[in-house]
Amino acid sequence: MDKKIGLFWLRDDFRMIKNDGLAEATINHDQVIVFYLYKQEIYKYQEAQKWWLSKSLINFKEKLNKFNINLEILETNSFKNFFDKLTKKNDFKMYWNKVYEPDFLKFDKYLSNIMQSKNISYKICKGNALNEIDEIKKNDGSPFKVFTPFWKSAEKNFLDKIPPKQKKIKKTKSKITYFKSCIEPEKILPQKKWFKNFEKIWLPGEESALKELQNFIENRISNYSEKRNFPNIIGTSKLSPFIKFGQIHVETIWDECKNKTKSIGTTKFLTEIGWREFNHSLINHFPYMLKNNYSKKFDKFPWKKNSKFLSAWKKGLTGYPIVDAGMRELYSTGWMHNRVRMIVGSFLVKHLLIDWKEGEKFFRNCLLDYSPASNVSGWQWVAGCGADAAPYFRIFNPILQGEKFDKEGEYVKKWLPELKNLSSKYIHKPWEFNDEKFKLGRDYPYPIVKHEEARLKALDAFKKI
Fold it and tell me: Is there a catalytic annotation at residue 403?
């Protein structure tokens, strides 16, 4: 046993199963401290996630107590300044798991160099992914830009690996404190209490993640291929926020799905894990796409600045029920059905010609499952400016999308109670409904644009680039 203290830097790893960095610390040291660095700047535009983070820290602190380990939360403005100060001491060995985002991987290199120069021991472990970023490349060494060949190669690479022996977290000899001026998890909660509704829906933590996975495998995965598109039913896994915070490892999801079920639905669901891997590959090989268009020709796209339209979209007041239902679901629950994410995204960029970055920023603030890789790639896919993106002429018709995927309007009526008395004939085009009890413009807004006109304008704008 190393006499030095084992320090584990907790990032997106709120789990006990398949947490290599934490396991290594407890295996090699009698005394371990887990610390979390809360950097306000990171969460400046991620209000919803402050709630999930705060709850996750409370949950994880309780779990660590059973292993004689303290979780210490520190507020910092700069990771660099924090570690420059910490590495003046040499009474510890440090462990952490990778986070597959360019800035984090770049910082890993910086921190490794500092520790080597000061002769401080450290170990960086694999993070929450099936494959490492640099493992999946074409034969010529260049990164994949199209999903299908990427996933074929990535899946084979993962299956060909000999699974490492699972390291288990051990109980340490005694509990200690290490850092001064720690903060409580409650301090992280957003000032505005708009997240109160989340508490009725979500329970952040590893136990909940494992329970959700088993529930999904037992009840829904076999029909996932067909039912994943219908927002009026629970057809998806609802695992995305847990994956984002590392409360479940994607390898655990893979193993459980493969061992307990074999169906087209299972294959389709695991392909979604493949998309997550692809998105992480993209942002690391083309980091400029986190802030700009992946396809440079879109830099000349004639986006419109229209604060009135943008506000109506955010509030779910566009006059298109399926779009408005999605936006209200997002604000109320911190989550939105994937089919509806595509519909509302397409509406913003193609009907309103508003820059995808505006949508990406709003989603970042409201989504509990926000991750830069998935959010940016998803928005650029919808806008047509991403890698392996939807073609520019693919413009979702919000009326037909509603009629196809929410035929009776159950989803719409759940989130737009003002339309609860409309029949399926009118629920996705309330402007055609005539009744004294329901008045357009009073009970529900007129459409802010006409679909056909907006579609032609979009096609015209796309042709310019």
Answer: no
Query: Would residue 356 show up in a list of annotated catalytic residues for this protein?
Result: yes
DSSP 8-state symbol, 458 = H
Asked about 360 being catalytic, the answer comes back as no
Verify whether residue 381 is a known catalytic residue: no
Q: Which of 51, 96, 202, 275 is catalytic?
A: 275
Nearest alpha carbon to residue 48 among 326, 297, 337, 245: 245
* Angstrom distance (rounded) from CA 155 to CA 233: 30
Torsion over CA of 362, 368, 371 and 376, rounded to 10 degrees?
Answer: -30
Residue in the block written with tokens 């924090």: 82
Told to judge if 9 belongs to the known catalytic residues of this protein, a careful annotator would answer no
Contact 395, 458 (CB under 8 A): yes
Closest CA to 428 of 437, 452, 444, 439: 444
For the entire predicted model, the pTM comes to 0.96
**Pick the catalytic residue: 96, 356, 381, 415?**
356
Our answer to whether residue 329 is catalytic in this structure is: no
Of 9, 151, 379, 415, the active-site residue reads 379
Options 215, 232, 292, 338, the catalytic residue: 338
Give the pLDDT of the chain (465 residues) as one tens digit per residue.
778 999 999 999 999 999 999 999 999 999 999 999 999 888 989 999 999 999 999 999 999 999 999 999 999 999 999 999 999 999 999 999 999 999 999 999 999 999 999 999 999 999 999 999 999 999 999 999 999 999 999 999 999 988 888 899 999 998 999 999 999 999 999 888 888 899 999 999 999 999 999 999 999 999 999 999 999 999 999 999 999 999 999 999 999 998 888 889 999 999 999 999 999 999 999 999 999 999 999 999 999 999 999 999 999 999 999 999 999 999 999 999 999 999 999 999 999 999 999 999 999 999 999 999 999 999 999 999 999 887 878 899 999 999 999 999 999 999 999 999 999 999 999 999 978 889 999 999 999 999 999 999 999 999 888
